[in-house]
Task: structure prediction
Amino acid sequence: MQAELKAIEQEALAKVAAVNDVKELQAIKVAYLGKKGSLTAVLRGMGKLSPEERPVVGEIANQVREAITKAIDDKNDVLENAALEEKLQEEAIDVTLPGRPVTVGGPHLLTKVIEEIEDLFIGMGYEVREGPEVETDYFNFEALNLPKDHPARDMQDSFYVTNELLLRTHTSPVQARTMREYKGEKPVKMICPGKVYRRDTDDATHSHQFTQIEGLYVDKDVKMSDLKGVLDIFAKKMFGEDRNIRLRPSFFPFTEPSVEMDISCKVCHGEGCSVCKGTGWIEILGAGMVHPNVLEMAGYDPKVYSGFAFGMGPERIAMLKYGINDIRQFYLNDSRFLKQFHQA
Ligand code: PHE
Result:
C-alpha cells in the first residue's frame, strides 16, 4: 500500500509539473484528491489494514496528500502569475503615442454678436428684456399702430397660428409689452434680443427665421438728437471709431418720424466702392421717434413722455463685421464655418 501511495505521488507530481493550463490543473486535482480520486480510493482501503500498520500508512498518506496539494497550489500560483503577466503585456499603454485631439466648442458667432451688443447697451443703462415668440396680433401689429387692414402689414408677411396668434415678425411688440408693464409711470430704457419670423423665401440675404434686437427709450423730453447720439456710439463701438452714421427718412407705422441708419463704408470711407454699391454708405437698422399713438395705447401720455426706438438684425451686423456673404451660414451648423469665429 505504501508503494501504491508513493506511485500515486510520483505520477501526480509528474502530471502537475507537465501541465500548463489552470483548467487541466483543476482536473488533476479532482483526479487525485477529489471524492472519486485515486488517492481517496487508496485511503478508503485503509480499513483493511492492521491496527499497527494504520498510523504508519496514515501518516504517509497525509504526506502524499500534502505534497500533491502543495504542488498543485504552487503550480496554480505560477500559472495565474503568468496569465496576469500576459494580460498586462497585452494591455500595455504606449505613453509615447500622440494623444487624440479634444475638440472644444464655443459660442455661436450670432450669440457672441448679440452678447456684444447687449453689453454695449447695458453699459449705457439699458435693461435686457424678452418677449414671447408666439405673439398676439394685438401686440405684434395693433399696439404698434398697425390696425387690421393697414397696408404696411404687407411689409411683414406672417406665419399665423390662429387668427389672433402668430410667430412675431419683429421684436417691436416687446416695446408695447414693456411700456404696459411700466404702466405709463416711469421711464423705459430697454433692449430686447430674440428670434423673429417672416414668410420669406430663404436666399443669401433672407431667412424665414432670424434675430433682431429692439431698443426703446421713453422718458420726459427724449429727442431725435438723443437717438442719433446713441446710434453713433453704437456704430463706433461695434464697427470702429472711424465710422460715421447718417439717418435717412423712412417709414414705420410705429415711429414718427422714422429713419433708416447707414454707416460709412469701411472699405471706401464714403467715397463709393463695390462693397457699398457706389453709395459710400451701408444700411444697418430702422429707428424713429415712438409714435404718439403707440405711447398712448401703452398707457403713456404723449404730451408728457416721448421716446425713440430702433430695431436691428444681428445677422446683418455680423455679416458686415466679419465679411460673411450668405445669411444661411448662421443656421447650417457647419463646423468649418463656426470654428473660424471661436477666437473672434
Ligand atoms: N420693427 C422694425 C422692423 O422689423 C424695425 C424698427 C424697430 C423700426 C423700431 C423702428 C423702430 O423692420
Observations:
- The pocket of phenylalanine is lined by residues 170, 172, 214, 252, 255, 286-288, 309-311 (CB under 6 Å).
- The chain is about 40% helix and 20% strand.
- The longest strand covers residues 209-220.
- The two ends are 93 Å apart (CA to CA).
